[in-house]
Structures are given as C-alpha cells and as structure tokens.
Design brief:
Blueprint: H1 3-31, H2 40-46, E1 49-52, E2 55-58, H3 61-72, E3 76-82, E4 88-95, E5 101-104, E6 114-119, E7 122-125, E8 127-132, E9 137-141, E10 151-152, E11 163-172, E12 175-188, E13 192-198, E14 207-210, E15 214-221, E16 226-231, H4 232-239
Parallel strand pairs: 10-15
Antiparallel strand pairs: 1-2, 3-4, 3-6, 4-5, 5-9, 6-7, 8-9, 11-12, 11-14, 12-13, 13-16, 14-15, 15-16
Helix pairs in contact: 1-2
C-alpha cells in the first residue's frame, strides 16, 4: 500500500524538478537562439520579469535597446568633406529639425572643402550656417523636408552608470552604413559626458543617446579611441533649440 503513494510523490518531485530546469536553463538557452525567436512561448518568456529576492532581471532590456536604435537610426547621417586632391574627411552628423538643420563637429566641415551629407545613400550638398571652433560644433543645412528628428534628454536627470548607446555612420564602397555601440556614463558635467565606449576615429560626430532614444550629446573620439560627448545642453544652446 505504501508503494503507490511513494510513486506518486516521486512523479510529482520529478515534475517539479523538470519544471525548474526548464524555466531556469532550457528556456533562457532557447531564447538566445535566433531560430526559436519566432515561437510564441519564447516571445512570452522574453516579455516576463524574473523576480528574485535581491534583484529584478528585466528580460525586455535588450529589446528596449533595439527599439531605441530603430527610433533614432535615420536621424544620424554621414558627413564627407572632399578636397580637389581627393583628400577626404569623414564622420557623422545629426538631423535636428524636419526641414534639414544638421549639427556635427566643426572639425568635420573644414573650409575649402566640398561638403556633403549622405542621407539614405543619397549625397546631398550641405551649407554651413555657423561655427564654433572652441566648442568644435558646426550647424549646417540641407535642402530636405519631412525628415525624422529626435528628442532631447534632460541632462539633469542623467546618472552615473546609466546605460547609453551611440549611433554613427561610416562609408563603404556600397554606400553609407550605420553602426551602434553601447556603454555607460562614467562622468559628466554641464559641458561634457565621458563614457566607457571605445571606438574608431571615423565615428567622430556620432550621436550619444539614453536608453529611451533621447539625445545626450555629440561624440568626439580621442587618440586612444575613448568616446566623450559634447553635452546636449551645449548642442541646444549652440543650435538655438
């Protein structure tokens, strides 16, 4: 008589252990495999929060970054300055207004060069409206309308260690490409935001965003590849927005 209850208890225990292993190990593994992303049970798993006594792991974190990148990607443009001897300077810029106001680094738009913006693989002439060599900012205009724009972050709400990302443009033979990198805020003040991101020099002029896709600043890259951003406050002050 005792064997039957013990058998039932054993089956229940195996079921509990199996369920735990499924939730703790198998589902997270399947969720990282692109093949399984299309299945509803994987999508449902990614949308849930796993709550432990000392931490909350939000499964949606990576999808939030993807959404933010998709929100701002089209506002980042390629900047190319060309001289008659074929010498070129390349970097990135940012669309500020729907009628074609663009901001970039002053060092990317030197005088005496032919200046163009690459917008969806279309090369568009750019006219410099004003410069500030000290702040290394330049405001320019392209003849386009109905362009996508961005929102501005509140620098006063920025926190040390806050998750951030940059979007930049670079040139290949096939046309302009976009690139993304992420990191955290190391330090900041009214004028400058320092990050832990390391990048190539050709991503000068790329834009720094918070995780919601709001502009935090315009990036510079030093000789060591360290990325710092001219703050959104300085960008707005210079552009009058």
């Amino acid at each position: 008589m005792l064997k039957k209850p013990l058998k039932v208890i054993a089956i229940l225990l195996l079921g509990i252990i199996g369920g735990f292993l499924y939730q703790a190990f198998l589902l997270p593994y399947l969720a990282t495999n692109p093949y399984f992303e299309k299945f509803k049970f994987i999508k449902d798993f990614k949308d849930r929060q796993i709550i432990y006594p000392k931490e909350v792991v939000i499964i949606k974190e990576n999808s939030a970054l993807e959404d933010a990148v998709g929100k701002v990607e089209k506002t980042v443009v390629g900047i190319k300055a060309t001289k008659k001897n074929s010498q070129t300077i390349e970097g990135s810029g940012l669309i500020l207004t729907s009628d074609g106001l663009v901001i970039t680094l002053n060092s990317l738009l030197p005088e005496g060069y032919i200046l163009n913006v690459s917008l969806d693989n279309e090369s568009v002439p750019i006219q410099v409206l004003q410069r500030d060599a000290k702040q290394n900012l330049a405001l320019a205009k392209i003849e386009r309308n109905n362009l996508q724009t961005i929102g501005f972050a509140d620098l006063g709400r920025t926190k040390l260690g806050e998750r951030i990302f940059l979007v930049g443009a670079f040139f290949e033979k096939s046309g302009i490409k976009k690139t993304v990198n992420e990191g955290v805020v190391k330090s900041f003040n009214e004028s400058l935001i320092k990050t832990n991101i390391i990048e190539d020099a050709n991503l000068a002029g790329s834009s720094l965003f918070d995780i919601e896709g709001n502009l935090l600043g315009l990036n510079t890259v030093d000789k060591m590849g360290k990325v710092s951003a001219i703050s959104v406050n300085k960008v707005r002050e210079f552009s009058g927005l």
